[in-house]
Specification:
Elements lengths: L4 E3 L4 E3 L3 E6 L10 H11 L7 E6 L2 H12 L7 E5 L6 E7 L1 H10 L4 H16 L10 H21 L1
Parallel strand pairs: 1-3, 3-4, 4-6
Antiparallel strand pairs: 1-2, 5-6
Helix pairs in contact: 1-5, 3-4, 4-5
């Protein structure tokens, strides 16, 4: 099984897949239940070797810059996943934008703390090869279905 290390300014957990949290904003950092996310992702997704993922919390200006640089889109988004296997253990980066996630939560009448978990899961699934732009929508339903299953497991674990 893979080992997960979640690193933040206040705690460090050792489990299976490694996720390193970087806070790239001066704004208030959202409260993210990293321990629950790590447990559910590792118990639900069978990853055979030790892997690393960077989770980067970024301001909206940085997300717009990255979106333009990587995808050629000059607009904001809630998550950008950058698959970049620079070695056998590193999968890539997941950038999340709390401002856009907060706006989307309000728009879809969802609680912010639930939406941010959903978006982190969504970004990690992209790094693991799930996509919603496949022909005939075959992968789209699989991505979102798995995303919601994992989200529900995290929320149950949090109770």
């Amino acid at each position: 099984m893979t080992r997960l290390l979640i690193v933040s300014t206040s705690y460090c957990y050792n489990v299976y897949m490694k996720i390193k949290l970087f806070i790239n904003t001066k704004d208030k950092t959202p409260d993210i239940p990293l321990k629950s996310i790590e447990k559910i992702m590792n118990s639900s997704l069978k990853i055979s070797t030790e892997k690393y993922i960077n989770l980067i919390i970024s301001p909206q200006a940085e997300i717009i810059r990255l979106n333009k640089q990587i995808f050629g889109r000059e607009c904001s988004t809630d998550v950008i996943s950058v698959y970049s296997p620079i070695n056998d253990n590193f999968i890539g980066d997941v950038y999340i934008c709390p401002d856009v996630i907060r706006e989307n939560a309000s728009k879809y009448n969802e609680r912010y703390n639930i939406e941010i978990i959903r978006i982190i899961i969504h970004g990690i699934l992209h790094l693991l090869g799930f996509d919603h732009d496949k022909p005939f929508g075959k992968e789209k339903s699989k991505l979102f279905k798995l995303q919601e299953q994992l989200l529900n497991k995290v929320l149950k674990f949090e109770k």
